[in-house]
Amino acid sequence: MSEAPTRRTAQPFISWAGSKRKLLEQIKPHLPSSFDRYFEPFLGGGSLFLHLRPSSAYLNDACLPLVDTWRAVKRNPMGVHREATRRPLDKVSYYEARAERGGGYLQRSGRFIYLNKGAFNGLYRVNLRGEFNVPWGAPKSGFICDLENLEEVSRTLNDADATITHGDFADVLARSSRGDLAFIDPPYVTSHNNNGFIAYNEKIFSWSDQERLAAAARAAVSRGSYVLVTNAHHDSVTALYPDFETIVLERSSTLAASKEKRGRTSEVLMIGRP
């Protein structure tokens, strides 16, 4: 059985839109005291996974370069660190790295982390050709990543014998069963919680996918899994989870272009208990 640790361990090595790192303190009180396997179908930066350090984990994401980077860190954190930090984090070097293509798994993973640190707001976006095209973000420091943390991330992944996949969320959730914990954090934005939520979010995660996700989450609970779902604070979303407890989470918005447009926003944590 895996139990939530009380000490700080590895930290996320990338910035990712929708990260739950700043919401962990609000989420932690709603975690089960123990569980068997851990499932996370939308891995992103992996904040909760790294905090929990489970003994068994199934991790998944729809972004293949992100999945490949997690796999590389698990396999060779020193090599990833070497590639990620081999050039300075400045505008000229950033655009040179952004124009590069191919390379081995260490080169690609190191470049992914490097570009993530230099990109505007840590965004990940590609054009129609699948090429990363986020502009230089002028970060306040030249920090990219540190080897000690990558090695701790690698240990956490290997201790969990983590299976890291690139695929549909439903395929991962379908493997969960009695005694497991599933943390589900799909892509969504909160800026349209009260106005045009469905139409706006259709661009990043379709409403039909929201419905499929809710069905998969409810099925996991029916099999005996403890399920946590984060999503936008909107009635149409919570209506998809009629038997789940709903907790409102509050955070600061960080994706607006200017500080003046950033403020407090709310999200929901929906809890399905077997």
Outline the structure in words.
Helix content is 35%, strand content 15%. The protein has eleven helices and seven strands. Mean pLDDT is 90; it is low at 255-262.
What's this model, at a glance?
Pfam families: MethyltransfD12. The chain has 274 residues and is an alpha/beta fold.
**3D shape:** globular
Indicate the percent of residues in helices. Answer: 25-40%
Order of helices and strands: HEHEHHHHHEHEHHEHEE
For the record, give the distance between the C-alpha atoms at the N and C termini, rounded to a whole number: 17 Å
Helices and strands in order:
Layout: H1 24-27, E1 38-40, H2 47-52, E2 57-61, H3 64-75, H4 77-84, H5 91-99, H6 105-118, H7 147-159, E3 163-166, H8 169-173, E4 181-184, H9 197-201, H10 207-222, E5 226-232, H11 235-238, E6 245-252, E7 264-272
Parallel strand pairs: 1-2, 1-4, 2-3, 4-5
Antiparallel strand pairs: 5-7, 6-7
Helix pairs in contact: 3-4, 3-6, 4-6, 4-7, 5-6
Family: Belongs to the N(4)/N(6)-methyltransferase family.
GO biological process, one term: methylation
Enzyme class: transferase
